[in-house]
Every structure is written in structure tokens, then in C-alpha cells.
Write a structure and sequence with these properties.
2 copies of one chain form a homodimer. Helices cover about 45% and strands about 15% of the residues of chain A. Chain A has about 350 residues and is of the alpha/beta class. Chain A folds into 3 domains: about 10-55, lambda repressor-like DNA-binding domains (434 Repressor (Amino-terminal Domain)), CATH 1.10.260; about 65-165 and about 300-330, Rossmann fold (3-Layer(aba) Sandwich), CATH 3.40.50; about 165-300, Response regulator (Rossmann fold), CATH 3.40.50. In chain A, strands 2-1-3-4-5-11 form a 6-stranded parallel sheet. The first copy, chain A, has a 4-stranded parallel sheet with strand order 7-6-8-9, with helices on both faces. A two-stranded antiparallel ribbon of chain A has the order 10-12. In chain A, strand 8 (about 250), helix 11 and strand 9 (about 275-280) form a beta-alpha-beta unit. In chain A, helix 1 packs across helix 2 (about 20-30). The longest helix of chain A has 17 residues, at about 300-315. Chain A is elongated. Chain A starts with 10 loop residues before the first helix and ends in an 8-residue tail after the last strand. The interface between A and B is large, with 86 and 85 residues. Chains A, B: It holds the Pfam family LacI. Chains A, B: GO terms for molecular function: DNA-binding transcription factor activity; transcription cis-regulatory region binding. Chains A, B: This is LacI family DNA-binding transcriptional regulator.
Chain lengths: ~350, ~350
């Protein structure tokens, strides 16, 4: 189809359609109070029928800021970040601010590029996943002069504010629960490794906790592909063929954990006596499996909400007092696959 | 934390840090070719170390357009729209365009509000889910003077371009497959109904196909809550208690279908002989269940890709010839839960 775009609508179009002067139309559209209710309604009705929308670019030039919040996350295609987005949206939808989303695929060089593009629009704030960034990205974040909230992870030094959980502690707590339950031969399976710093920190936390009980991880497999059920099945089968005496499997996320669980049920393993399992994320979607997988809620929606609240508060008042480090506390859900010690 | 934001960086800061004149710095940052390679590198290195990012708002004021693409979708929290977003991102990440995401929760009044907000930023294009919009939303889309692509669904009249599948036809094809396989007592379960127009159209398409074989839907349940495994279990159990002689269950999405499947397996139903099942969406995540659920791929990632390609082509040349109606063809995947007739 070839076509000429329609001529942009102007105040004059609304003025002609409503029979009200351009100046009054402008007052109504800027929400000024010095216009009668009847006139206001006439103008708004005409504007709506025409499909007129005011232009905010000029205002942005004056303020040097647009009402966009840059949200920079690794991926949309697993269940983790859409829930963070939902939390962010819940807060921003009651404000003038809108999220702009950039995807990094867990790659630092891509994060740098996306951040550069977004900052060139002078957004009102940045919400960015993780604490590990390139030097150039950190320089841009520091120089941006807007609120920056790093989310998901609190194990490190933020540029500005941070909202998340300690993944080292999450791994440590799982490690302690595994020890307490008496498991001795532990296997770890991780996807998106080593790019997923948060999964790596959980692995490290668990390893340290186990070491205190004199136990070393007996086998591990890092895989940098997807994270579906089928991948969890495959990895579990391969690991148990290689190291058949494992009695506990810790997965970097619930989806591969659920795949492993379905595989072990089919093969007739006695869970959690013969072998225990735990995932991570508390994916609500997975409630309804034949057995409930042990996991830990990553507080995703709350992280999004709290981060957006910081941006909103700082946008309204740059000097407002805020908590610059918000560490949320996930709790272990034992489900049916991790013995209570 | 209370703090004064840093003074915004200017061309002069880059000039001082690099020892190159402001005019030359400006040339380098606008990618002009009349600067030596050595000078260019010096300037870019200094800009990177400082975290300097050029300001694009002024350019937008001149062109009356910003390089944002408004993407308006019902939800982030199921698996459908994140995959559409991934498709859109794959195309836009190679361009200057960035997606801005608005969420409607399947509510027309919220869609209207989100659209209004986004259009006030004069984006370069709009990608919006579905063909059903309020009159005011349609007026805004028509008047915007930018490429508009309605996605997911081709059963109706688009404002401008449309990329999707025919959900009526998808439902009809499943209905025909059910008839051909010899099932006679059919139940339908839908979530997000009646707000999800696409699920409604699939239901209508199936009903029509069954009617041609002289069969009426024996039971149906519409539920407007979430769509997790547990919901699929509950709905399936309730329906089979109410109508125990059903021999086929059609679900509005794969997640509730998978919940139903797990329930039926546990209860010892003989699938697909005693009872058959089908879902919708082709959610890749679900590969790895004990049996493969019959489904239909909704072409989500391709829909996102093709829609973004239209926006990109039209942004480069508003008069370019494009296909204004792209209907993709999903195919039935029979899996282990739908007999081949």
C-alpha cells in the first residue's frame, strides 16, 4: 500500500470542530481552570472525535527531560523479567511516566549500546538489571544526572540506588537447607551461565555453605542456551548417567528444575528421600505440577514496584530522602522435593 | 539519600577532556566524515570515559518525530506477548528505533489512555494488539499520521496494516480435526474471556466447524482470571465432575491445557483414546511434559518481526509499497493428545 500520511491535526482543527477559539482550546487541553465546564466538554468531545493528541516534544525540550523511564533487562523470553515489568507498570501507570524497554541478551557490549541510545533521549530515570556493567556503562549512568536504580541483585556497589535480593545469601540458605536435610552428593545445573551473574552468585553461595559442612559439589553443568522443561530433562539425564550417586540437584531456575522433576518422576525415583531437588524464582506458573518443586521466591514483582517508586519519588523531588539500598528477603519454599532437616 | 544531581555534561567537557575544539567534537559526535581518524578516536575515547551522551530531543523537535515505536499489548505476564516483544526487538535493535511498551490489561478504556499518552510523544510508529478498539482509539490511530500495525489477529478491518493469523480459522481447523478424529462430546475452557477477543474467535470457529458435523459443544467454562497450570487442573476437574462423558477438551491456551493434561494423567485417563485435548499457542516452554499437548503455533515471534519490519520500512520511506495485510498460517501440532482422523 502506498499512501500519503494525513496532515497532522492542529489546535485550529479542534477549534473549528468545536466552535471554540484556539486560545480556549489550548487552555482546555492544558487543563487550565479558567474555562467553563460546558466549553471544556465541547472541546474535549471534538478533540476525541478527531483523534487529536497534544504534542509533548516541545515541553521536553524546555525541561531537557522526557517522561520516559529506561528499563534495561537481559531478556523478555523467560518468566522472570515480564514479572518485573508488570511490577514497574503497576506503579508507572498511575503517573505521567512511561517505561521504554531495552534488551541486552545478557551481553555487556549490548547493554552499553542500549543504554547509550536510551540516554540520548534524556529519560527521567533508569532501571537496569544487575550490578555488573562495563566501565563505559557505569560512566554513562553516573553522568546521566537522573535517578538510576539497579535491580535484582544487592551483592555489590550500585551507581546510585539498588533494589533486589542477595543471591549469594539465597544460595547459602539453600546450601544450609540441603546440609540440614542430610543430603551429601550435590549436583548443580545452570543455564545462561556464566553470563547470568545472579545464578553464578547463588552457585557460589551454595558452594560456601556446603564447604562449611565439609561437602564439595559432586558435579555441575553450566549451559548457556535456553531454559525450558526439555533442557532440564536432558541435563538431568546426562548428569545422572555421569554421576549416578547424586542425592540432590540444585537448578539455576524453576523451569529446568521442573523438567528435571518430571524426568525423575517418570524414572521412578523416590523424591525427596532418594533424591532431592530445588529450583529458583518461585514461578507461579508451575504450581500444578505433580509434585511441588522446592524453590525460592525472587520477589520479582516487588522489585519492579519498589524500583519504580524510587524513580517516581525522585522525579517529583530530586532531593527527596530515599533508601538507597533495599534488600528484600526471599524465603525457601520446601515444596515436596526438599526434606526438612 | 539526599543529593544534588551532577551538572549535565556538555560538548565543552568532551572538548576539554580530549584537547579537541568543540566544533570538531560536535562533528565527530554527529558522525561527520571530515575529521581524521586519530582525532575521532581521541574524542570518542574522552566521551566514553566521561559518560557523555548526545541529546536527541532537539532533533526530535525539528523533525516532529521521536525514534520510538509505541508497542501496546494486553499483558506481560503470560508467555504470549514477551515472545512478540522479542520478535519486535530483533528487528528494531538493528535500527535507530526503540520500542516503548504500554500495557492495557485487556481493557479498552486503558488502551485508550495508554495510546493517548504514547501518541503525545509523536512516536515513529504504533504496533498494537488486536483489531477491536474504542471509537476514540481508532480516531487517534487514524489521525496519527504514522504507520500503525495491528497485530495477532486478521479477522476484521485494520486502521492501516495488520499482521497476524485468523483465529476463526485456527478454531475451525481444530474443530475439523476433532470431528475427523471421531470425538463427539466436546468441552471448551477459556481464561481471560470474554475480554480476549482472539480466544472468543477461536471458540466461535470451532463451534461452527463442529456444527457442520452436527455436533454442539457439550460444556464450556469461561474464566477471566490467570492462566497457570493450577487453574487448568481446577477447571478440568470441575467440568468433568459436571459433564463426565466429555471425550475432548479444547483450551484457550497451552498453560491451562497442560494443567488439564497433568490432571488427567494422574487420574489415569487413557489419552487420546478415552479423552483428547488441545491447547493453543505452541508454547515452547512446555516441551518436556510427560505427553506432548496438541496445539497450534500462534507465530508470535514472526508476527513481532514482520510488524516491526513494516514500521522500519515506512519510517525510512512513508510512501514505500508494503503488504497491508499479512496473514500467517499456523499449523496444528497433534502431539500425543489428539488422534489423527
Amino acid at each position: 500500500m502506498s499512501r500519503t500520511p494525513p496532515r497532522p491535526l492542529t489546535l485550529r482543527d479542534v477549534s473549528e470542530a468545536s466552535g471554540v477559539s484556539e486560545m480556549t482550546v489550548s487552555r482546555v487541553l492544558r487543563n487550565r481552570s479558567d474555562v467553563s465546564q460546558a466549553t471544556r466538554e465541547k472541546v474535549l468531545r471534538a478533540a476525541k472525535q478527531l483523534g487529536y493528541v497534544p504534542n509533548k516534544i516541545a515541553g521536553a525540550l524546555a525541561s531537557q527531560r522526557v517522561n520516559l523511564v529506561a528499563v534495561i533487562i537481559p531478556s523478555m523470553s523467560n518468566m522472570v523479567f515480564p514479572e518485573v515489568m508488570t511490577g514497574i507498570n503497576k506503579v508507572l501507570e498511575n503517573t505521567e511516566l512511561q517505561p521504554v524497554v531495552g534488551i541486552t541478551d545478557y551481553l555487556p557490549e549490548k547493554e552499553e549500546k542500549v543504554l547509550y541510545e536510551m540516554l540520548s533521549w534524556r529519560p527521567s530515570g533508569v532501571i537496569i538489571a544487575g550490578l555488573e556493567h562495563s566501565e563505559a556503562s557505569r560512566a554513562m549512568l553516573r553522568a546521566a544526572g537522573i535517578p538510576v536504580v539497579e535491580i535484582m541483585d544487592t551483592d555489590g556497589d550500585p551507581v546510585d540506588a539498588v533494589v533486589g535480593i542477595s543471591h549469594r545469601r539465597a544460595g547459602k540458605e539453600i546450601g544450609e537447607a540441603i546440609l540440614k536435610a542430610g543430603y551429601k552428593r550435590i549436583g548443580f545445573m545452570g543455564t545462561k551461565m556464566p553470563l547470568d551473574h545472579r545464578a553464578r552468585k547463588r552457585f557460589e553461595g551454595m558452594t560456601q555453605a556446603l564447604a562449611k559442612g565439609g561437602i564439595e559439589v559432586a558435579d555441575h553443568e553450566f549451559y548457556s542456551g535456553g531454559s525450558a522443561l526439555a533442557k532440564g530433562r536432558e541435563m538431568t539425564q546426562a548428569m545422572l548417567e555421569r554421576t549416578p550417586d547424586l542425592d540432590f540437584l540444585y537448578y539455576s531456575n524453576d523451569m529446568i528444575g521442573a523438567g528435571g522433576l518430571l524426568y525423575l518422576i517418570e524414572k521412578g525415583y523416590d523424591i525427596p528421600t532418594q533424591i532431592g531437588l530445588a529450583g529458583f524464582n518461585g514461578v507461579e506458573l508451575l504450581q500444578g505440577l505433580p509434585m511441588k518443586l522446592a524453590t525460592m521466591d525472587a520477589c520479582r514483582s516487588e522489585i519492579g514496584r519498589r524500583a519504580a517508586e524510587i524513580i517516581v519519588a525522585r522525579t517529583e523531588d530530586p532531593n527527596v530522602e530515599i533508601e538507597e539500598r533495599i534488600e528484600l528477603t526471599p524465603t525457601i519454599s520446601y515444596g515436596d522435593t526438599l526434606r526438612r532437616g
